Amino acid sequence: MRPGIVVEVNPADQARLQLIVTDRNSPQKHVWRAQIVLLTAAGHGTAEIMRQTGKAKTAVWRWQERFMQAGVDGLLRDKTRPSRVPALGSNVADRVVALTLTTPPGEVTHWTGRAMAKTAKISLSATQRIWRTHGLQPHRLRQFKLSNDPQFAAKLRDIVGLYVDPPAHAVVLSVDEKSQIQALDRTQPGLPLKKGRCGTMTHDYIRNGTTTLFAALNVLEGGVIGRCMQHHRHQEFIRFLNAVEAEVPAGKLVHAIMDNYATHKHPKVIAWLERHPRWTFHFTPTSASWLNAVEGFFAKLAKRRLKRGVFHSLVSLQAAINRFVADTNADPHPFHWTKDPEKIIAAVRRGHQALDSIH
Asked: Which of 34, 76, 101, 318 could form a disulfide with 17 if both were Cys (CB 3.0 to 4.6 A apart)?
């Protein structure tokens, strides 16, 4: 050993070093470092340690000194080395952030990593690291729609009140139609799911017609009344209302929540409403179809049954929809509203204030 280097191994360190050497999962660099210390403690000279470990003299001396200074833990970690590439200054990150918040040059809509790296004269990885640190994602875009209905707050409170505290001796129905449901047949059969491969489906298709599903979700019980029809005009809507009227028990009031589609406000529909005094229509605010509970049923239908479905005819599509409605009614789940309407109103106001301040 070099002068001034003393290697003293206590029983605890001896046992720990032996465990490192014998453990099959130990990294090899940890193994030969532990062997250097064990051979040194056993009284072997530098030449013998070099022969048994296959390491250079400088490596033997380095790890003897490291053990003397930091013990066994010092053998298990490497000293950090300075990067060969100088670190970027804070002014570079500030410049990248400022550029990201501006419109990129040329006829492009948003910044890309490579475009920013070229403009800022830094690497792509550095650009991505700065964006990640500052929470910037210029490649992503979230869509939104704020309602401009002047009666937004009143309509929201009215509908949420029906969800949370429905009137006694009444049925609350969420009514809407899902139009243009296509009976799509694939040009080739797909491959089934198996280990290491997801299911496949051809991108092209054969369209065998379309249908419209009228649906009324019973908010209190979770059941759905559904009818498939060829069109979604006021004539079909009145036929659907008559079908719902026949299924709702006599003596119960009916509160129907629906959006502002023109069919729902057609003069003949209003005349039908006047002939049925137990019915009351509650219209959602404009651009607020998410307030209609039946939209959740439509989303579930599209995701679980329609999106990957293969339908050879319009009849098979309608039969599949009817079976899905029947399965939903076999195991109904009541609709539960949880969002505070005052928080929604406050969020919409903040959105309008932000838009007004920007534009």
From this structure: 34
